[in-house]
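Hi F.,

I've been meaning to write this up properly since the lab meeting, where we talked about keeping a consistent format for the predictions we share between groups. The idea is simple: the sequence comes first, exactly as it goes in, then the structure tokens exactly as they come out, then a line or two of notes. No screenshots and no reformatting. I'm using this chain as the first example so we have something concrete to point to.
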Amino acid sequence: MIAQTGKRVEEKLISFLEPTQWVNKLNAEAIDRGELNLQLERPQPRGEKFLWQQMRCFKSIQWISFGAEKSGEYLGIWRNPRITACKLSQLTSLPTLTTYTKLQTAEALAPLN
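Output, unedited:
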């Protein structure tokens, strides 16, 4: 009985943690390819699209972000299940918060606000 419980816990942990490892790997590769730009003081439309695509692919992920350690700027996206949407935020000298509906495609991002 204890072995079965341990096995179920292990399976749940793997299914929970595995997508986050994939997202980290994909982000690192995108940075290497230049698809994600770490100069976050400027708007990041390609980065926004990339993060949106990840949220559509990895349904269990609730939050994805990356940032600049020295300046504190970041780009992040998170799910808001109450309104079935994702919110994309970029903190620069002029912070922005944009909401995208769940039904939109990555090719035609149209903010709600």
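Notes:
Confidence is low (pLDDT under 50) at residues 102-113.
Strands lie at 63-67, 74-80, 85-91, 96-101.

If this format works for you, I'll send the rest the same way.

G.
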